[in-house]
Amino acid sequence: MIEFSLKQLEIFIAIVEFGSFTRAAEELFLNQSTVSSHLMSLEQILGKPLFIRNCRRQVCLTREGETLYPIAKEIISTCKSIPSLFRNAEPYRPILLGASTVPGQYLLPRYLSAFLAVQKDFRYVLRHGDSTCIHKLLKEGEIRLGFVGTVSEPDIVDYFPLAEDRLVLVAPNLPRYQKLKENGAFGRDLLTEPMVARSEGSGTGRTARDYIKSQGLSSKTLSVVARMDDPEAIKHMVIGGFGVAILSSLSVRQEVAAGRVLSFEMDPKGLTREIYLATMRNAAFTPAEQELLTFLKTYHPESD
Fold it and tell me: Exposed, middle or buried: residue 105 (CB in 10 Å: 0-12, 13-18, 19+)?
């Protein structure tokens, strides 16, 4: 049984051709730790080191590495030619996507619309759920690409940071909160207020819980009046005066601009997290999926 993977060979080739682990990681849109881990696994499987670790040059191949390189190149080249044999078999087959609430509602539509503008045949099916649900769908093969706000399966899932998201505390636009904002209050100063919280499985909820814990508060300290999945419903609760909430700034942009809610930075530094593009490690992608992946990893909305 073959124990090594095409991904490991691809990473080995990239290290050789780009001259360093760092460049290889950048070109393959991977973390350097992921590149190192794949190479180490390949060396363990083959039972031989492929690079001389104390080489003064950028990379130096061992004799085994020099033997493997042309073979690996031929294997990868052959594999890359296979999809072209079937490229026209199902030209409109939809790509299966899954997104947690914030990227699905407030970020992904812009990315997918931009891709559709350059790829007219693009079709997709998008499933929604919290971050826990999206990871489950990804592992079960129900979706091919996921968009989440938290890293929870780093051993089997590759995460590419797609965009930065800022979390803020939103409060009803009432005189009491207006006064607090005028006096320079931060979101951390309002954490003991009645709160409408995100669900346990959401990336926003997890980031908020970690932040609250960092402030020396526990769940027993908080006054959670409701816990909900949908940020739209949470916003309506806040507007109605039921409490405050920690939400993505992407999700409350219109309400803040219209004066329906007040927005407080969590602290002077601000509370940020990454929105990630998640794929199963060692997954083999169709040409259409690979085209979308490349677009997403190089697209910069701010340049539109």
Answer: middle
Q: Which residue has the tokens 């590759």?
A: 158
Per-residue pLDDT of 112-130, as tens digits, reads: 999 999 888 889 999 998 8
Provide the token pair at 293. 């992946």
> In this structure, are residues 146 and 278 in contact, taking their beta carbons and an 8 Å threshold?
yes
DSSP 8-state symbol, 107: I
Three-class SS of residue 296? helix
Beta 157-172 vs 194-198: how paired, if at all?
unpaired
pTM of the model: 0.65
Please count the CA atoms within 13 angstroms of the CA of 242 that sit on its side-chain side: 16
Please give the DSSP secondary-structure letter assigned to residue 52: -
258 Rama class: left (phi>0) / alpha (psi -120 to 50) / beta: alpha
Angle, in degrees to the nearest 10, between helices 21-28 and 32-46: 110
Q: Coil, strand, or helix at residue 175?
A: helix
